[in-house]
Each structure stands twice: as structure tokens, then as C-alpha cells.
Amino acid sequence: MDFQLNRDQLDLQNRAEAVGASFRGEAREWDESDNAPYNDIFERIRAADLLGIAMPTEYGGQGGGAIEYLVVVEALFRNAQSWLPSEPVFCTSGPGPSMLLLGDAAVKEKYLHDIVAGRRACNIALTEPDAGSALTHLTTTAVRDGHYFVLNGTKSYVTGSNVNDLNATFVRFDDIPGAKGIGAVVVDTAMDGVTVQRGPTFIGDRGIAHGNLILEDVRVPAENLIVGPGQFARLMTAFNLERLHNCGFWLGFSQAAYDEASTYVQQREAFGRPVVEFQAVYHTLADMWVQIEALRLLAYRAAADATDGRFPRLAEVTQAKLFGATIGPQISLKALELHGGYGVTTDFPIQRIHRDCVTNVVAGGAPAVMRNGVAAGLFPHRKFPQT
Ligand SMILES: Cc1cc2nc3c(=O)[nH]c(=O)nc-3n(C[C@H](O)[C@H](O)[C@H](O)COP(=O)(O)OP(=O)(O)OC[C@H]3O[C@@H](n4cnc5c(N)ncnc54)[C@H](O)[C@@H]3O)c2cc1C
Fold it and tell me: Which of 94, 107, 278, 320 is such that its CA lies 20 to 30 A from the CA of 365?
């Protein structure tokens, strides 16, 4: 068992930290205006050579795996104190591109070279207005018509919907009920019948849209199939990279909250002493740090044990994500409290960090759903009906 990053991983971490820190002064403006120069962000991440890091070299990727992915997104989140600079990594190497790796040669050849090189980028579109946790109840349909699938339905909360043109989209084939009917296809927002709708407005993670994709008789070429019906569990193995991304968020943002609190309490004085010298304060920081280190062990174990080094295993990544979503908002709230009244002013970034944390609690799957998954693993011979 080795708890150290190797030389290449440390180099990756250094580059991600440096470019991440270069964004920090801009995060406030993106948050306030709910607008960000996405192309500029993308190009700076490209210049730091952080696109396609966990994609195979045959598609132009850097040949890294889940560990390299986690190293990079954690460092970006912590140093940028914004979720935005990790998006180019997500869209060229995260769950969407990983899902495409499950497809036939046709879909991979058609899209992966461009995605990995950052010429195009791929969102994930699973959620619907009436089916989030209840993913197996999604109602967007795909019906075969000659060389096409005809899609109808609405996808919601699609992060990056207004800036990236490709979407790994979950659909129900031929009205087959339940998980058995679900597969995925690549939808290009330029296809006839696709409408991208920005919104709703979020309290955190601001700057680019988490929007809707409305699909009306969209004719998707058959070669855009990622996986067909009957392979839901396989499809979800690639989705596990989304949960690892969430773990990177919690690690990065918990540390960003810790960093801000640690700096503030060493500068702020009360009763003639820096407030860090009060036991209640330094114990709070110590507790935060131990929680962060525990999350680090869970998250990096999930990355280190990933199947083929690439697809995190469900049980481990679910435990890590659940722990992150539990401690992350607690840490950011404590960090805000340590700022006293200044914590809730826009003069300090901690309120934005806390809003971003709250915004991410259910992203990638609500904590209760994670608990369902952990419990199902603890009691494999029992069924806990969800309907
Ligand atoms: C910041 C952010 C980014 C996102 N990005 C994307 C994206 O890029 N692509 C995408 O497809 N989706 C995205 N989503 C959507 C996200 O995956 C869903 O919001 C999430 O899965 C929860 O679904 P829901 O919002 O429909 O909540 P619901 O499923 O309606 O849940 C409401 C409540 O009911 C509880 N609940 C539901 N079912 C159960 C159950 N079986 N057991 C116990 N409790 C249950 C939940 O825990 C929750 O507390 C994003 C969401 C956010 C907040």
C-alpha cells in the first residue's frame, strides 16, 4: 500500500494548482454576474495541458486514469475556489467521454478524438424534470427508424448545456420499462429538434448554465449509440467517474473553506489576541482537517481501486461521495462561522464557497440515494424496494 503520489502525478498536481490559482481572482465576478468567459477558461486549461487526462492515448488522451483525474480536479477546485475551471477537464475526460468508451468503434471514432482534443466537449444528460433520483423511471424515448433513433423528451440540469455541444444522453429504448430499457446515445445540440434552455438560476456553481435540453423528434444517427437497452449496470460504471468528480469537488472545496478560515482566524483579533489562539477555534480547524484527511483516504481509495484504472467501483466511490457531501457543507458552514459577521458579507469568499457546497449536495446523486446504495451492499440478500 502506497499513500504517495508518483513523480508524474505530482507534476500534474503542480500544474493544476498553478492554473487553478490563476483563476481565483475571477471567481467572484463569475459568481456575481452568473456569467463566465468559458472559452478563455477552456484555453487556459488546455495551455496547462490538462485536457483528456484520463482518456486513452489512442484517442489523443494523456493515458492517465482515475487517480490522475482526481488529482487534477481536486487541485483546480481548491485553488480556483470555483467549480468552473474543472469543467474543461470534466467535458474532455469525465463521465461523458468515459461513457463513449463503452460504445462501438463507430461512435468512438466519430467523437472521441475531437472531445479529447477539446475541439468539442461532452456533457451528461440523465436527469429529467420528473426523474432525478428515480433515474430508472426516465421517460425520454428513443425509437428506431431505419438508420436513426428518434428521440423525444426533456433533460434537465444539464451542466454546460449552453457551452458544450455534445451530450451523452440517457434514453428509454422502445418503451421497455425499468432499468432494462435504458441506454445512451450522443446528442449534438446542432441536431434538428434540439432546444437548449438556460436555467433555472442556481444559488451556487454560477457562471455557466445547468440548463434543459428539449428533444422533439430528434433524429440521431444509429452510429451515435453508446449502449443499447439491457446494459444499464455497465453504463453506470462510467457514470462512477461523475461521483469521483464530486469527491474531487468535496476535497477541493472543503480545503478551500479550511484555507479561508485558517487565514482569517490568524489575522482577526478579539480580546487582544488572534482568534486562532482560542481553543474552540483551533479545535474546530483540527476537526475540519481530520475530516478532510478521512475524505482523502476514501476518495483516493476509490480512485486507486478503479476497474482498469479508469472506472471507479460503485461501493467505494459511493461511500466517498456520501462522506464528502456530508462533511463538505458542515466544514464550509463552520468556516463561515469562524469569519464572524464578515462571513456573510460579499467582501469575503467564504459565503460563495459555502453556497457552492450547498449547491452540490445532491449533484451526481442525493445523499439518501447514496445511503441506499451503501445499505444495499451491506445487506446483499435483502431487497429494499424503492417504489
Ligand atoms: C449542481 C448540479 C449539477 C447537476 N448536473 C447535472 C448534469 O450535468 N446532468 C444531469 O443529468 N443531472 C445533473 N444534475 C441533477 C442531479 O443529478 C439531480 O438533481 C439529483 O440526482 C437529484 O434528483 P432530483 O433533483 O430530481 O431530486 P429528487 O429525486 O426529486 O429527490 C428529492 C428528495 O427525495 C429524496 N429521495 C428520492 N428518492 C429517494 C429514495 N429512493 N430513497 C431516499 N430518498 C429519496 C432525495 O434524497 C431528495 O432529498 C445536477 C444537479 C445539481 C444540483
Answer: 107
